[in-house]
Amino acid sequence: MNAIDLDALLGQAVAVGASDVHLAAGLPPAFRVHGSMAPAPEWPVLSDEVLRATLLAILTERQGQRFEDELELDFSHSIPQGTSFRVNYYQQRDGLGAAFRVIPSDIKPLHELGVPRVVERLAGLPRGLVLVTGPTGSGKSTTMASLIDLANSTRSDHIVLIEDPIEYLHRSRRCVVTQREVGTDTHSFNAALVHALRQDPDIIVIGEMRDAETMAIALRAAETGHLVFGTLHTQDAASSINRVVDEFPADQQTQVRTQLANALQGIVSQTLCRRADGQGRAVATEVLMANNPVRALIRDGRLHQLYSVLHSGSDEGMHTLDQALATLVRSGEITFDEAVSRARQVDQLAQLCGHSAHLVQGRTTVAGVR
């Protein structure tokens, strides 16, 4: 069975402004454009045979063996037009499936992404732990790349990035930049992190903090004078802290809270919202800066009080996600209904937007279980 022209399909996706391309046996290719999925124009339904001929052809022998052994594979792929993609292959009910995430070739400054300027401070810190968090597809990798690019252009340090796979390519500018890909340049995040500490790093970037061992090494590195950036699949500052602590056994959690309280410098949580005009998406952020009150709450496990600190911390650049959503609504960038679908506390969002509480009473529970 003949393969399809994969590079032509991916090139079409880039031309129409898609962020993702999805391939699955029994379906036509699909593009995600401005957050919405739709079939790719003029492409037929793909059989499993056609998909296998297409997708397996771009793998190296080693990648093919890994996919056969594990039934999952993450890697990078580039097309002749110069665009790179983060790729995931998987096995699903009807056969092979794949997701291609477009990686923009240019790294935009944080303010062009819509991220608050206060976040730029995090790129200049001498040490500590910085977390960039959000659900899948929220732009974490893009924000992280902008932070690292800022450090690369303003500092004179050694930056070590450990990723699975490598997404944005960082050329050494004022810094010496080393990028390592799990599965290609190193066997695991943990192995790479252990050895990174012996490579004279100033900044360590962990593509994803997945388990207790990775988190423990990250905390140790942050405590010993390194600046450590990491990403988590969590939705806000409080859940990010809980996620780190909960990865450890109960008898270690008090010590981990103490370590985290000492090492943490900031958390940037974000989500992407459909713009009111339908043209693209706007980023809404929650920013936590680790001042003394925040450190005390983490140390004592009183995270339910964290949002009062976020609300009162505007002088230090802190704000909640609901405050950011309300700002986007008031400026007309997103609709109130879109904000409701992303909000943590809908009644609070309504108040910030000047809406009457009775207009959103039926939506509070829905947002509350997100």
In words, what does this structure look like?
The protein has 370 residues and is α/β, with parallel strands linked by helices. The protein folds into 2 domains: 6-103, Beta-Lactamase (2-Layer Sandwich), CATH 3.30.450; 110-319, Rossmann fold, CATH 3.40.50. It has helices spanning 6-15, 48-55, 61-70, 110-113, 140-154, 189-196, 212-223, 237-246, 253-263, 292-300, 306-312, 321-330, 336-342, 346-353, 364-368, and strands spanning 20-24, 30-33, 36-39, 72-78, 84-92, 95-103, 128-133, 158-163, 176-181, 203-206, 227-232, 264-274, 281-289. Strands 9-8-10-11-7-12-13 form a 7-stranded mixed beta sheet, sandwiched between helices. Strands 3-2-1-6-5-4 form a 6-stranded antiparallel beta sheet. The N and C termini lie far apart (43 Å). The model is unreliable at 364-370 (pLDDT under 50).
Describe how the helices and strands are arranged:
Layout: H1 6-15, E1 20-24, E2 30-33, E3 36-39, H2 48-55, H3 61-70, E4 72-78, E5 84-92, E6 95-103, H4 110-113, E7 128-133, H5 140-154, E8 158-163, E9 176-181, H6 189-196, E10 203-206, H7 212-223, E11 227-232, H8 237-246, H9 253-263, E12 264-274, E13 281-289, H10 292-300, H11 306-312, H12 321-330, H13 336-342, H14 346-353, H15 364-368
Parallel strand pairs: 7-11, 7-12, 8-9, 8-10, 10-11
Antiparallel strand pairs: 1-2, 1-6, 2-3, 4-5, 5-6, 12-13
